[in-house]
Amino acid sequence: MTSIFHSGLSKDLSLILNDADDFNVIIQVGENEHVKEFHAHSVILRTRSPYFKSALSNKWITKKNDMIIFNKPNITPLVFDIILKYIYTGELDLTRYQDEKILELLVASDELLLEELFKHVQDYLIKKKTTWIQENFVLVLHTVFKLLNCKKLQDYCLETICSDPQSFITSKNFPLLDKDILYRLLERDDLPVEEIIIWECLIKWGIEQTHDFESKNIDKIKWNNENYKALKETLNRFIPLIRFMEISVSDYIVKVRPYKAIIPNHIHNEIEGFYFNDTIPKSIIIPPRIGKSHIESKIIKTKFISTIINWINKKDAKAIRNKNDPLYNFDLIYRGSQFGIDNNSFRNKCNLRLPILVLLKCQNTKKIFGGYTPVGFYSIDSINGLIYSEDSFIFSFVDDCIQNFKLSRVKSYDHAIYNNYYYGFNFGGDALCMENWNLYANGNDYYEQNINDDNNIPYIIEEIEAFRVVNR
């Protein structure tokens, strides 16, 4: 059996760092009046850091009196002191340092290829510094988007913004956002802000980023052709990301149309045709933004909701939304892993006379099953447990590809829903029904088609969710 004495080793290496007289590397860190000299050992630096293994090779080093001289002006002395102690001892206590220094440490550990340290600092910021990140989004975003390996923190920042975006995009710092980061944000489908607000904030950002505008020239009445031309050049790559079809006619006329000079002609013509001639755009086909606040599902991805909304609106899966089509919020009212997967648990939460969407994930299959009822699962007018509905439908698709879907709308309206205590829910007899933890998806004459290839084989429900569908 091998005995481990890491604590003693760490202590001895710390003494070597602080008191050794046999160092062979002098590292000058910082710049101007903030320069500090550190002494280190090349063998330890090269062993612990791939960066130093390359940088201290014979091809690159500068020697003076048999001493390796190395300069790192872009790292502050405090941050390098943290790094050097980590390299020698493997110890780190981030609670001792200011948040800005921890962010600097993230950048420095990435540059020095200290993968373990980089991962730890990134996770620490995400888990322990949520409030500080939210208060300093622009600083953090501009820092982490320069680091190729920082995707986890990049995604965390964007997802945090999307969870509550209004305060950020309307803040005084939003116009300072880097153009590439802004593009990443605006292209997301899960940015739950009214599109007209996104448009107005984009205009403010463009004015701030366009050099032809001075603070005294913010008034649009005073703009000349050169101003519009410069703003158009600034916003050219962002205009196609705006979901114009989500903007009301009145807002379009008052807040968008005055800026027609900055909108590419083909986009402007399609928008005008959409609003005033009811023509469907051919190139502006970005789906509506469906924010995470609209559906908190562990079963389906957010992007699939636009397809389900189309089905609710009696349209094809890939149809472009008409300006008069309703949009919906999806409020979670039941989750099996939280309340229990059985008939009584489902009925206690979902026997309502309200529109409800049900989603199911089952064991040993990649298929997702679902059903929608505009009248809920309870009705005082039902006879023999039957609930009348003209617009109910059931569906299935593979969890990562909704294109391979099967949609089946109700045919026999008086048999759309069975309200029977033997089941949690029951669409059309056994077209799609829950019997405790069993799910049956069998074809019958009450719905258009069978949504399942395995007739009469019950699935075991792994997770089930029900959402109240609210017109917004």
UniProtKB/TrEMBL annotation:
<feature type="domain" description="BTB">
    <location>
        <begin position="23"/>
        <end position="96"/>
    </location>
</feature>
<dbReference type="InterPro" id="IPR051481">
    <property type="entry name" value="BTB-POZ/Galectin-3-binding"/>
</dbReference>
<dbReference type="InterPro" id="IPR011705">
    <property type="entry name" value="BACK"/>
</dbReference>
<dbReference type="InterPro" id="IPR000210">
    <property type="entry name" value="BTB/POZ_dom"/>
</dbReference>
<protein>
    <recommendedName>
        <fullName>BTB domain-containing protein</fullName>
    </recommendedName>
</protein>
<dbReference type="Pfam" id="PF00651">
    <property type="entry name" value="BTB"/>
</dbReference>
<dbReference type="InterPro" id="IPR011333">
    <property type="entry name" value="SKP1/BTB/POZ_sf"/>
</dbReference>
<feature type="domain" description="TLDc">
    <location>
        <begin position="298"/>
        <end position="470"/>
    </location>
</feature>
<dbReference type="Pfam" id="PF07534">
    <property type="entry name" value="TLD"/>
</dbReference>
<dbReference type="Pfam" id="PF07707">
    <property type="entry name" value="BACK"/>
</dbReference>
<dbReference type="InterPro" id="IPR006571">
    <property type="entry name" value="TLDc_dom"/>
</dbReference>
